[in-house]
Amino acid sequence: MAFLKSIILVFIVFCFIETIQLGWNVDGARLNCPQNERNALLSFKQGLIDQTNRLSSWVGQDCCKWKGVSCDNFTGHVVKLDLRNPFPFDVDRFLDSFSRSDKTYSEACLVAVGEVNSSLLELKHLNYLDLSWNNFSGIAIPKFFGLFHELTYLNLSTAWFGGIVPHHLGNLSTLHSLDLTTHDIFLFKNIPLFHSTLKNFTSLTILDLSYNKFQGPIPSAIRNMTSLKVLQLSGNSFNNSSVLDLTSLTILDLSWNYLQGPIPSAIRNMTSLIVLQLSHNSFNNSSVLDLTSLTILDLSWNYLQGPIPSAIRNMTSLKVLQLSDNWFNNSLVLDELKNLYTLEVLDLSSNKFAGKMFERFPNFSSPSLRDNLETLILSRNRLTGYLPNWLYQLKSSLKFLDLSGNSFEGRIPTSLTKLFALQVLDLSHNQLSGEIPMSFGTLSNLKNLVLSYNQFNGTIPTSLGQLSHLTYLSLDANNFHGRELEYTNNLRFVTNLDLSNNIFIGQIPKQLTNLSGLNSLNLSRNHLKGSIPKKIGQMRSLESLDLSYNHLSGTIPQSISALTLVSYLNLSNNNLSGPIPSGNQLQTLNDTSIYDGNNELCGLPLEKKCIPPQTPTYVDRKSKGEDKRDGDGRIGGMLIFSLLIASSLATGWFIQLLEE
């Protein structure tokens, strides 16, 4: 009997080994994928334009080695097809592009030619399909997608599918994740989803229908998706959320819809929520919020009013709290925020907080809060008083500080210049006065500095030249004048400079044209005179140039036509004369207001035609006792800009404003 058992055991082991080896050849390598599945993938590829050769690896017999294809380790069957665009659309690339496009994204798209080849049905064991961020040219989602009965993950987001979502997708009862997100920025065709399609998705844990144009109430079928962990319905036109009663949710995003009235009471029962985003709706009551597990709470852009909800004081795990653009006031703000020691982002902008609340803001004596808070936004309220000295307690963590649009007064405290981690500082649109502290030069991580629309005066400190990461500087609408503003080699990344609405006088320095990295230059509404530098065309990166409301004279240099990226130009209200240059980008800037207030200009786009020049007559100025002095006999009685370039290849720059 024992011998028989031994024989049976040996047989079982033998069968087990043979079963394993079925998926491997004699050399120990896994068998190639089935020929029919390989052919199916190649047929699918033939219906795509592969602009950047993303699928160049799709050669040879073994499709399991192809990029984006994964196979079962034992059977060799294709189980995963991941063709997600490796370069999803990027807003920064879009905005930085003159043509307002993201070529990196668009060129990496797989572009469909005609319908998706149904040969994919040969992939009978497929459980993962991701075609997101490609371009399927507005064709309908293939009905045969509903026949992938083993599919657990389906991502068709932002893939330019259009039309009606086929009800056949309702057959995918094994789906755990479904993403049909679109993005209106591309003007995609709407994907209206039939509510009946949803009723079979009872196994879903993730459902994302964001940024479509679904209307009416949230589909009642969602109520039956009791396994849902993530529900994202933002960017639609839903107007009723009464069906939501999903206690297993950890992430709920209903932002950018037309929901109104009190926040749904059912949310109170979602005790596992860690992310709740309800922004950009018309909610007017937030009393139901009592969720102690939240790490992100966004109630911005609603009609909430009165004190900040008292329940927030118990949300001790909060990292992000966004309450901007409501009607909250400050009656109990200190009590509600004092326990939020883990906060990283606090945005209370555009509310009705008033008075000197900021002087007695929550005590940052807690080491954890001092080390965590990175973003503090209190802009566009009615706050008054002086900037407080307690800001220095955030010196190791605070990266973004926006106090703009209030009524703060007095000088900038030196404590603010101890925020060594600061990258963005916006104090604009207040009533601050005095000089910019010389110690600003110690804010070595500063990228954006916005001090416009205040009452600052005096000189611009040379220490700003030490800010090697500065890319945006706005000092407009103040009373700055004289001495010097120094930019050294370290400031070669400055792309935006706004010195408008001050009292600078003198000429625009010729060396300014060496700042080839500038995207935007605004020197308007000063007292600058002389001519526009002849080499202005060297500033090839300029997209915006504003020299209006000065006393500039002479002709417009022909080189200005070399600014091929310029989309905004304003030379109005000066004393410019002669013909307006033509060619390149200037041909598209045909708005006559660009040249208003320069009565001696002529040529297109103005109606005034130019008169051919006459032969000049030589005049001996010395015989008339004239020299190069101003009319009042002064040589240096004005503000002089001078920019010194360290070497012929230096990209840094130096502006010296010298007042006698």
UniProtKB/TrEMBL annotation:
<dbReference type="InterPro" id="IPR032675">
    <property type="entry name" value="LRR_dom_sf"/>
</dbReference>
<keyword id="KW-0732">Signal</keyword>
<keyword id="KW-1133">Transmembrane helix</keyword>
<protein>
    <recommendedName>
        <fullName>Leucine-rich repeat-containing N-terminal plant-type domain-containing protein</fullName>
    </recommendedName>
</protein>
<keyword id="KW-0472">Membrane</keyword>
<dbReference type="InterPro" id="IPR046956">
    <property type="entry name" value="RLP23-like"/>
</dbReference>
<dbReference type="InterPro" id="IPR013210">
    <property type="entry name" value="LRR_N_plant-typ"/>
</dbReference>
<dbReference type="Pfam" id="PF13855">
    <property type="entry name" value="LRR_8"/>
</dbReference>
<keyword id="KW-0433">Leucine-rich repeat</keyword>
<keyword id="KW-0325">Glycoprotein</keyword>
<feature type="signal peptide">
    <location>
        <begin position="1"/>
        <end position="23"/>
    </location>
</feature>
<dbReference type="GO" id="GO:0005886">
    <property type="term" value="C:plasma membrane"/>
</dbReference>
<dbReference type="InterPro" id="IPR001611">
    <property type="entry name" value="Leu-rich_rpt"/>
</dbReference>
<dbReference type="Pfam" id="PF00560">
    <property type="entry name" value="LRR_1"/>
</dbReference>
<dbReference type="InterPro" id="IPR003591">
    <property type="entry name" value="Leu-rich_rpt_typical-subtyp"/>
</dbReference>
<dbReference type="Pfam" id="PF08263">
    <property type="entry name" value="LRRNT_2"/>
</dbReference>
<feature type="transmembrane region" description="Helical">
    <location>
        <begin position="635"/>
        <end position="655"/>
    </location>
</feature>
<comment type="similarity">
    <text>Belongs to the RLP family.</text>
</comment>
<keyword id="KW-0677">Repeat</keyword>
<keyword id="KW-0812">Transmembrane</keyword>
<feature type="domain" description="Leucine-rich repeat-containing N-terminal plant-type">
    <location>
        <begin position="35"/>
        <end position="72"/>
    </location>
</feature>
<keyword id="KW-1003">Cell membrane</keyword>
